[in-house]
Every structure is written in structure tokens, then in C-alpha cells.
From TrEMBL:
It comes from Lacihabitans lacunae. This is 3-deoxy-D-manno-octulosonate 8-phosphate phosphatase KdsC. Belongs to the KdsC family. It holds the Pfam family HAD_2. InterPro entries: CMP-NeuNAc_synthase (IPR050793), HAD-like_sf (IPR036412), HAD_2 (IPR041492), HAD_sf (IPR023214), KdsC_fam (IPR010023).
Length: 172
């Protein structure tokens, strides 16, 4: 692992994730009453481990469905921001950091598409993305997971940070 990346991982206290293309593979099943997504259960377990170790976790998504919040709240994530469009994600992100007195340099943001680009490019955050993120996002990412969206990228990033801080598997 790159020494610069390792030193940045040592200071991470906060994870911020997009949903579609990160927690999910970006496939949406549209029904009359909701838009359905498939979440990876291993990502959920890693979220719970990170929360037990005291990390802050937030989600900022353009998705509007309450089912997103229901799933994420069920994992213990309190800060879930729905309906954040491309032009709002950076504002929501900065507001979250300010409200919780978190430095951007202590944050890893995981996104996969153009709506995540501004947060990843114009903050001091550690930018991460799935293997199948769009080219523009990959070009500015500090870390590109070998996992695709919906296939364990959330867990991969959490493990990366927690292992670098010697906190992985320390919650038993």
C-alpha cells in the first residue's frame, strides 16, 4: 500500500457513502409503490463493526425512497440524507461535517458517479470508489476498490481503514 494512503487512513474517523452504485449495483427495480434495491449483507456487517468502534457514518444519496433510510437506520446509521441531487451533495456533505465538528481530512467519501464528483474533488476528504465507478470518478479517487458497487465495496473500504488502524476484528 502506498505510504501516502496509509498515513491518510490513520486519521479517518468518518465514513460517508453514496447508495446507488456503492451499497448497490445501481440496478433499480421499479414497482408501483417503491424502487427496490439489493444491498450486500456483508457491507451491513462491516457498518455495524465500524459503528461499534465509534466511527461516524453518514449516507448522502439522490435516492428519495424511505426504504433506503429504513435499511440504513436498521444498520445503525443515524445520518441518512435522501434526495441530495448533484448540485446539493457537496453542500449536504459540508453541512454534515460542520454540524458534527468533523474535519474533511478525517473523512473517507465513497462515490461512483458524477453526482459524487464534486465532493470527491473539492474537499480534503479521502476519495474512494468501486472498481466499476465511472472514469471521471476513478480519475480523482485516492483509492479504487477491487470490488464493484453492491459487491462489497463498502466493506472493503471499512476494512481498509480499520485494518490500517488495527481496529478490525476488535469488537468481539
Amino acid at each position: 500500500m502506498d505510504i501516502r494512503l496509509r498515513s491518510r487512513l490513520a486519521n479517518i474517523t468518518t465514513f460517508v457513502f453514496d447508495v446507488d452504485g456503492v451499497f448497490t449495483d445501481a440496478t433499480l427495480i421499479v414497482s408501483e409503490n417503491d424502487v427496490l434495491r439489493t444491498f450486500n449483507v456483508r457491507d451491513g456487517y462491516a457498518i455495524q463493526m465500524a459503528l461499534k468502534q465509534g466511527y461516524n457514518i453518514a449516507v448522502i444519496t439522490g435516492g428519495k425512497q424511505q426504504s433506503i433510510a429504513t435499511r440504513l437506520h436498521g444498520l445503525g446509521i443515524k445520518d441518512v440524507f435522501l434526495n441530495a441531487g448533484t448540485d446539493q451533495k457537496l453542500e449536504v456533505y459540508n453541512g454534515y461535517l460542520e454540524k458534527n465538528n468533523i474535519e474533511a481530512a478525517h473523512t473517507v467519501f465513497v462515490g461512483d458517479d458524477i453526482p459524487d464528483y464534486l465532493v470527491m474533488k473539492y474537499t480534503e476528504t479521502l476519495a474512494a470508489c468501486p472498481f466499476d465507478a465511472v472514469e471521471e470518478v476513478q480519475s480523482i479517487a485516492d483509492y479504487i476498490s477491487d470490488k464493484c458497487g453492491g459487491d462489497g465495496v463498502v466493506r472493503d473500504v471499512i476494512e481498509l481503514v480499520m485494518k490500517a488502524q488495527d481496529k478490525w476484528l476488535k469488537v468481539f
